[in-house]
Amino acid sequence: MTPFRAIRAGKPAYYPDQTIYAEYAASALGLDFAERDGGTGLIFQVSGAGKRAAFGAGRGSFFPQNTATAATLANDKHMANVLMAHADIATLGGDYFFLHDRHRAHRAPGHEREDARTLFRSFGGTAFVKPLNGSRGDFAQSVSGDAAFTDYLDKVAAHYDAIIVQRVVTGQEYRIFVLDNDIVYSARKLPPVVIGDGTRSLRDLLSAHETTLSSHGISSALAKEPDTKLDTVPAEGERFALTGRMNRSAGGTMEFAEPAEAAAAFATARGALRALGLRAGAVDLFTDIDGDPSALRVIEVNANPSIRFLEDADRADLILRIWRHTFTSLGLIDV
How does the average pLDDT of the chain come out, rounded? Predict the structure, then answer.
């Protein structure tokens, strides 16, 4: 049994994972932990060595060792790509575009909806598109055709101000977690799947998956399949992979693994954090791009990554390592 089950007991289902990990780490390291928001876990404090630090869950940062400037740069996918390119780190490139006319007088030309369509068509009418400041895989998907692209822009505009449009590439996707130049772990990301129960059609299974995503505030991006295939009933236990994004929040999974060219991938991950001025972060990258085993490109850098994967993998030691680094950086642990 993981050490987190006892902490979760009696807490509401929405109680934040990172708050639970902080409480665990504080106890293990002899620090004082105090929840400050009536049991929601949204706000908590950790005290030690005569100091205390407050944390906010949800969109709050759990990595105060990163400066606000560095975290903001990482969160903007275009800014991050520009800085990494200047550091000779290969990214997926692309360009950013605004979805609303407001504030148009304050921005440079070439980044409006009509410009997005021009770039989209230059890619042959197929591109990978996602919100410029999005997370958890929300609205991150491949789009094909002018009509689908226009529909995508309209849907995303209800939730975000800007997008980034990139050329579609294929490869193996990895996440590499880095703390002060040290590789904490490397994991391969795997696509979400729906599993047959021998009763429901593939269409019904996909619909149920979409409903689950919606309840967690994540957009659907289901694989497009012929109607005839959607009406089939997968056998019990039969797995159907959903191509595209592999975020855990969107149903994807991870497993500990290193890329074939691990040294190059690790050097790239370290360089990506240095380029953005981060001390802690997770670098998502593609390897084996379009069949070339030596090719790799950074997808994005996450300055506030989820570490629920480590709980699922029963690696409380790595969760403790990450939080020890955080508490030490705040001076809560005497060194």
Answer: 89
pLDDT bracket for residue 249 (50, 70, 90): low
- How many structural domains compose the chain? 4
Residues 6 or more apart in contact with residue 137 via CB below 8 angstroms: 218, 221, 245, 246, 247, 249, 250, 252
Residue 160 near residue 130, CB atoms below 8 Å: no
DSSP state of 250: G
Per-residue pLDDT reduced to its tens digit, 61-112: 999 999 999 999 999 999 999 999 999 999 999 999 999 998 888 899 999 9
List of E strands, 36-110: 43-48, 51-56, 95-98
Helix (H) or strand (E) holding 68: helix 68-75
As a whole number of angstroms, the distance between CA 322 and CA 179 comes to 8
In this prediction the pTM is: 0.84
Amino acid at 172: Q
Measured distance CA(232)–CA(216) in Å, rounded: 27
- Same domain for 181 and 254, yes or no, is yes
Residues 98 and 155 in one domain: yes
Element (H, E) at 271: helix 262-276
What six digits make up the tokens of 114?
């009509």
Query: Hey, which residues does 165 pair with through a beta bridge?
Result: 95, 129
CB 7 within 8 A of CB 15: no
